[in-house]
């Protein structure tokens, strides 16, 4: 099954408090425009900077808006495996279809330690688990062989988001895991790699850009499902251009929040501390850029 999932941004009233109303408005907008899934509290959602209390508040509010309309996924990874398990249990109790788990970050880990961490999480949970591989942030990569061994042991590990710009690692996961587990779902994270991923036998993308142009990416997934490769190629060119938005400002999350504010979806584009909001002197250029995708 080919899918496009949006790892959603988190609207904020201030540096600590989630703006639930704006978040729900965004989820409804994304679903109405055809996205297949909503992933709350991924990297795009600034998850390391948001308190457990605020996370629980949004998870409880999100389920009624997302459930049975799109796949509802919650990011629950933490440095502490017990916190990961606890937040995952809470997510399932409050309507999540699956959780996506990034492993402990900061220290590098051996393949054996990676296996032990995710094995403990999966064994402790009854619901579906996506692995989240993000070596630029965790200081290690989940190897294709480790993924295969985890899937062999834990049937509730149903997929992986592979956040690497070079498709080589993602393709190796496909080659290693799919022959034995064809239903295992493999997603890239860079939007411009969607077509490459599906042509290689993967399942799609969990990428940030659908937050600001959902119909474009829903149409891309639909074209891929329909094997309309002329349309896939045409949309690829638009996506390659839209990728330029990520270089307007650092962090790029501030850029995408500014777009959502201009679109009237977020009330304001507040960031968690210590990130700064998108600068005023760049806003007009950003608005002109986004006119290409209206």
Structure description:
It is a single chain. Strand 2, helix 2 and strand 3 form a beta-alpha-beta unit. The radius of gyration is 18 Å and the shape is globular. It has an 8-stranded parallel beta barrel with strand order 1-2-3-4-5-6-7-8, surrounded by 6 helices. Helix 4 (111-124) runs parallel beside helix 6 (144-153), helix 6 (144-153) runs parallel beside helix 7 (167-177) and helix 9 (214-225) runs antiparallel to helix 10 (229-242). It has 12 helices and 8 strands. The chain has helices spanning 20-32, 52-66, 81-93, 111-124, 135-138, 144-153, 167-177, 194-199, 214-225, 229-242, 252-262, 283-290; strands spanning 3-7, 37-40, 71-75, 98-102, 129-133, 157-162, 185-188, 204-206. It is of the alpha/beta class. The longest helix is centred in the N-terminal third of the chain and has 15 residues, at 52-66.
Topology:
Elements: E1 3-7, H1 20-32, E2 37-40, H2 52-66, E3 71-75, H3 81-93, E4 98-102, H4 111-124, E5 129-133, H5 135-138, H6 144-153, E6 157-162, H7 167-177, E7 185-188, H8 194-199, E8 204-206, H9 214-225, H10 229-242, H11 252-262, H12 283-290
Parallel strand pairs: 1-2, 1-8, 2-3, 3-4, 4-5, 5-6, 6-7, 7-8
Helix pairs in contact: 1-2, 3-4, 4-6, 6-7, 9-10, 11-12
């Amino acid at each position: 099954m080919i899918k496009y999932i949006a790892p959603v941004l988190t609207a904020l009233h201030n540096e600590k408090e989630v703006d639930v109303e704006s978040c729900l408005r965004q989820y409804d907008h994304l679903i109405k425009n055809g996205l297949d899934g909503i992933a709350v509290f991924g990297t795009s959602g600034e998850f390391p900077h948001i308190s457990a209390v605020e996370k629980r508040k949004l998870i409880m509010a999100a389920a009624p808006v997302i459930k049975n309309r799109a796949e509802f996924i919650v990011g629950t990874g933490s440095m502490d495996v017990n916190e990961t398990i606890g937040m995952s249990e809470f997510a399932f109790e409050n309507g999540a279809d699956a959780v996506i788990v990034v492993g402990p970050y900061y220290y590098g880990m051996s393949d054996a330690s990676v296996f032990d961490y995710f094995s403990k999480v999966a064994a402790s949970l009854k619901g579906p688990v996506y692995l989240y591989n993000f070596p630029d942030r965790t200081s290690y990569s989940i190897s294709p062989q480790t993924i295969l061994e985890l899937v062999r042991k834990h049937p509730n590990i149903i997929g992986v988001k592979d956040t690497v710009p070079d498709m080589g690692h993602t393709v190796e996961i496909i080659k290693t895991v799919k022959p034995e587990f064809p239903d295992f779902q493999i997603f890239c994270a860079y939007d411009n790699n969607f077509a490459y991923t599906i042509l290689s036998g993967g399942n799609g993308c969990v990428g940030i850009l659908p937050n600001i142009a959902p119909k474009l990416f829903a149409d891309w997934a639909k074209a891929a499902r329909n094997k309309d490769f002329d349309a896939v190629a045409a949309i690829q060119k638009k996506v390659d251009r839209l990728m330029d938005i990520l270089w307007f400002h650092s962090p790029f999350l501030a850029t995408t929040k500014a777009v959502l504010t201009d679109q009237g979806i977020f009330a304001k584009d507040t960031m968690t501390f210590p990130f700064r909001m998108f600068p005023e002197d760049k806003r007009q250029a950003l608005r002109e850029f986004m006119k290409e995708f209206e």
